[in-house]
Description:
Layout: H1 3-6, E1 11-13, H2 19-31, E2 52-55, H3 73-101, E3 104-109, H4 122-143, E4 147-152
Parallel strand pairs: 1-2, 2-3, 3-4
Amino acid sequence: xxxxxxxxxxxxxxxxxxxxxxxxxxxxxxxxxxxxxxxxxxxxxxxxxxxxxxxxxxxxxxxxxxxxxxxxxxxxxxxxxxxxxxxxxxxxxxxxxxxxxxxxxxxxxxxxxxxxxxxxxxxxxxxxxxxxxxxxxxxxxxxxxxxxxxxxxxxxxxxxxxxxx
Length: 165
């Protein structure tokens, strides 16, 4: 990826403290020319600029969690709140800025568990299927405004993942 593609771009990357998000922040930071921090707010119109929204923040349960009989409702609710509802709201608020601009890119981190059964707990898989469905449904809705919507679905990533239930 050339530096020109990210020059003057404004990105929000959720979950950037560790794992895939930290890597995305690092790559974006390395690709953007160094300059003094500046506000991207245009004071005379009170509008914001946003080019890329990467909804990456998420949690998962321990991989050793058993079948559906071992699942806890409270863990499921927390996982849906962070993984799916967080992504939904991130996309919603990004769209508010991107639609008037008539351009932008909204990304989500889904998972290979949406293509390969048995890779994750049922709760985690359900949230990632939800993200995949959300991305597919947003594509025609936001595409009419020039906004691209995509999912990144990694298999296994070795990381110090602090978001374990």
